[in-house]
């Protein structure tokens, strides 16, 4: 579990995060949503230690990130997996070598154990036969799955995903969403996803945090969001006619069941 308490971050006197408090739960997909400039990226960078908050605390199972020594921070980072927006695979390495790389850098496993673990991760994301290929030889969806395999290679307790569906077609996005959700549940990971994808919100949003102008405006599940009485949230999530119709249908079904 990750607990954020009264987190504030300012840049040259301009407050970007304004006392944000939230709890990210283990074994669940926790989604952070909000408009561009709302503070989502700054929040994510503070959570992974790339930025230091102006005040407040970030507790990783009771360990306050803001008070850790350099050695303690290094150890904590090895408990984190990261899926970047552009996959960020090494072009000069094969898919297998990309997954093997963090194991070679940070794991104390034997060489055979590292190879076995890397192959297990590729198998888990349905890339069993793609290990010999280079990133330039695979599709965008396969690259994203390879990035997921690399992110879970060290068996992380915490998984961060920055716009994991960026650049993917709707069908492939659904596959990636489901894969992230399955891995989160299967390995009891605390997963945090920074996203603009409303399909992700509705499909895998077990816990959703809506950030507006540096404040936590709303939180709840993808079921709660359908009945949410928050104008800013509704304007953001149901901006398109398609999602407005989805909400109308879902609300009607819920009321029919009551």
TrEMBL record:
Transmembrane segments: none annotated. Keywords: ATP-binding, Nucleotide-binding, Transport. One of its GO terms (molecular function) is ATP hydrolysis activity. This is Phospholipid/cholesterol/gamma-HCH transport system ATP-binding protein. Pfam families: ABC_tran. InterPro entries: AAA+_ATPase, ABC_transporter-like_ATP-bd, ABC_transporter-like_CS, P-loop_NTPase. PROSITE patterns: ABC_TRANSPORTER_1, ABC_TRANSPORTER_2. Residues 2-238 form the ABC transporter domain. Gene3D superfamilies: P-loop containing nucleotide triphosphate hydrolases.
